[in-house]
C-alpha cells in the first residue's frame, strides 16, 4: 500500500512539473559604455502577438460603435517593440549597484515610426520627458522588420535612423 502511495505521489509530482507554465515576461537588454549589460523590464501589457504580411489597415465596428483598428505589418516595415529614454547612475547604488532613470518612449515612437520603412528621430526630452535632468541620456530602441529584431542606440541631440530591411 505504501508503495502505491509513493508511486501516486511521484506521478502527481511529475505531472505538476510538466503542466507548470512559466509567467510571460520580457526585458530589453542595454549595453553600457563600459560593456556591462543591464536588463530593463518591459511591462506585460506591451507584449503582443504580431502578424506579418502585406501592410493593411482594416476596421471593424466594435460593440460601443467605435472603430477597432487591426494593423498587419509589412515584412519591410518598422514595428517598435520597446523603447526607453534615459540613463543609469552608479552614484546612488542599490542592491544592483546602479539606479535606472528611464521613461517609456514606446508610444511616441510607435506614433512616429510604426508601419514605415524608414524613420528619423531627434533624440531628446521631447520624446517622453527628461527622466534624468542635467545628465546625458540615450534612446534605446528594439524594433522589428518582419521577423528580424533590430536594436538602435543614440545619445541625446543625435538623429536616430531606423530602417527596414
UniProtKB/TrEMBL annotation:
Keywords: Lectin. InterPro entries: Lectin_gal-bd_dom, Lectin_gal-bd_sf. GO terms for molecular function: carbohydrate binding. Pfam families: SUEL_Lectin (PF02140). Gene3D superfamilies: 2.60.120.740. It comes from the Bacteria. Residues 75-145 form the SUEL-type lectin domain. This is Galactose binding lectin domain-containing protein. It comes from Maridesulfovibrio ferrireducens.
Amino acid at each position: 500500500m505504501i508503495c502505491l502511495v509513493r508511486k501516486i505521489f511521484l506521478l502527481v509530482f511529475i505531472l505538476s512539473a510538466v503542466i507548470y507554465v512559466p509567467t510571460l515576461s520580457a526585458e530589453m537588454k542595454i549595453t553600457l559604455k563600459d560593456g556591462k549589460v543591464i536588463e530593463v523590464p518591459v511591462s506585460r501589457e506591451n507584449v503582443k502577438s504580431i502578424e506579418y504580411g502585406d501592410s493593411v489597415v482594416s476596421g471593424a465596428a466594435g460593440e460601443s460603435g467605435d472603430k477597432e483598428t487591426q494593423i498587419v505589418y509589412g515584412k519591410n516595415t518598422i514595428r517598435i517593440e520597446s523603447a526607453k529614454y534615459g540613463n543609469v547612475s552608479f552614484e546612488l547604488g542599490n542592491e544592483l549597484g546602479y539606479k535606472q532613470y528611464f521613461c517609456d518612449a514606446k508610444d511616441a515612437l510607435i506614433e512616429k515610426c510604426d508601419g514605415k520603412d524608414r524613420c528619423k528621430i531627434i533624440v531628446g526630452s521631447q520624446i517622453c520627458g527628461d527622466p534624468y535632468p542635467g545628465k546625458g541620456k540615450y534612446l534605446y530602441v528594439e524594433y522589428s522588420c518582419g521577423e528580424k529584431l533590430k536594436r538602435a542606440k543614440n545619445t541625446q541631440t543625435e538623429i536616430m535612423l531606423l530602417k527596414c530591411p
